[in-house]
Write a structure and sequence with these properties.
Length: 384
């Protein structure tokens, strides 16, 4: 009887193995070359992993046109966060702001306009008048505001950017790059998520005048939720976009396209390529203990090590099982230990190639141990 049961079990197991082998498994889709676009420079980057998926002339200087207003918004958001100004502050419109050429939200000299309305007029309607009014409210005048813009650009790692105004009106000393604009796009969403919905507004009405957002992808692609268009004769047609599908967020920047339609189709091609052939994965969360290390002469013997930020990777579709992570930890850790100090690295490889390397840091403080612990560990170290 027992032999019969064993035979039945073996038959069932064999059948299951045959069925599993017959079941088609997801295959890695070969990643084709990225689309070739007509724009002068462009980039496609994952928001969470920082992985650049497509890049052409990404560090070439360009007139940013109204993409400048993204940095104007970043500075204003920073001022709101620090409570130097308030969202409902009433801003008195100057004659300089009113006279600003180009696109307008149609504010009048002497009007008192809330900061929120000016932000919407600047972001949705691309109002140069709103940009100058905000700059004057924050810094007193536009030239001083431009200095603040440049300070934030340096902080964000925008090494090839320089601003001289808050609007994007042409100037030989006013320039940026596709890569720097992608970094700014990422920073806006990362640092001020509460204001991101402004970039997705399709229209805004002020002073009885309704104007539509120039980013037509907001109508064509429901995954697109920002960010900003730009156009001057010198700049051509530019577009910085953000889109999210299946918990994956991509940033694209197209600069120097030949027409409004070209910047839209180029952007759509980049986004479709990224979402079709790549996938972003969260590997480790910030503050998660990834490994433990021996601490000598400390009040505690073992130190948890982890990351200061979430670790994402963006890889070709169906390649997750080919990822391998390894931890390199410093050999000798001596107390005292300060939370946040680096004591090693976590390396992530895909098919033998390193795609991410992040510092392993102490997740807690460890003070020096008592005299007995220190003496004992001193002996153990000598004997090693």
């Amino acid at each position: 009887m027992q032999a019969i049961r064993l035979l039945i079990i073996l038959i069932v197991l064999n059948t299951a193995l045959i069925a599993a082998a017959a079941t088609p498994q997801p295959q890695a889709i070969p990643v084709p070359s990225p689309p070739t676009l007509g724009a002068d420079s462009y980039i496609l980057m994952d928001h969470d992993s920082n992985q650049v998926l497509v890049e052409v002339n990404v560090d070439k200087r360009h007139d940013p046109a109204s993409l400048t207003k993204m940095m104007t918004a970043y500075v204003v958001f920073s001022e709101l966060k620090s409570k130097h100004i308030a969202i409902d502050d009433q801003v008195t419109v100057s004659e300089k702001a009113w006279r600003e050429p180009g696109s307008r939200m149609f504010i009048e000299v002497g009007d008192k306009v809330p900061v929120k309305a000016l932000l919407q007029g600047m972001i949705v309607q691309s109002g140069n008048d709103a940009s100058v009014a905000l700059a004057e409210h924050v810094a007193g005048n536009e030239s001083t505001f431009a200095q603040v813009m440049n300070q934030y650009a340096r902080t964000l790692g925008m090494e090839h950017t320089h601003y001289v105004n808050a609007t994007g009106l042409p100037d030989p000393k006013h320039y940026t790059t596709a890569h720097d604009t992608a970094l700014l796009s990422q920073a806006l969403m990362r640092d001020f998520p509460q204001y991101h919905s402004m970039f997705a507004e399709k229209k805004y009405t002020y002073n009885g005048i309704e104007q539509y957002n120039r980013n037509k992808l907001l109508w064509r692609d429901p995954s697109v939720d920002g960010l900003k268009t730009g156009h001057t004769e010198a700049a051509g047609y530019c577009l910085a976009s953000s889109a999210e599908r299946d918990n994956m967020r991509l940033i694209s920047v197209v600069m120097g396209a030949g027409s409004e339609e070209a910047r839209l189709s180029d952007t759509q091609a980049l986004l479709n390529y990224g979402f079709r052939f790549f996938k972003t994965h969260l590997l480790y969360q910030a503050g998660q203990s990834l490994t433990k290390a021996r601490v000598w002469k400390g009040a505690l013997e073992m130190l948890p090590l982890g990351l200061t930020h979430d670790l994402f990777v963006t890889i070709p579709e169906h390649q997750y099982d080919n990822l391998k992570a390894s931890m390199n930890v410093d050999n000798l850790l001596m107390a005292p230990v300060t939370r946040g100090e680096q004591y090693g690295k976590v390396n992530v490889q895909l098919n033998g190639q390193t795609i991410s390397s992040e510092p392993l840091v102490a997740l807690e403080d460890i003070s020096e141990g008592g005299i007995w612990r220190r003496m004992t560990d001193e002996v153990l170290l000598i004997l090693q």
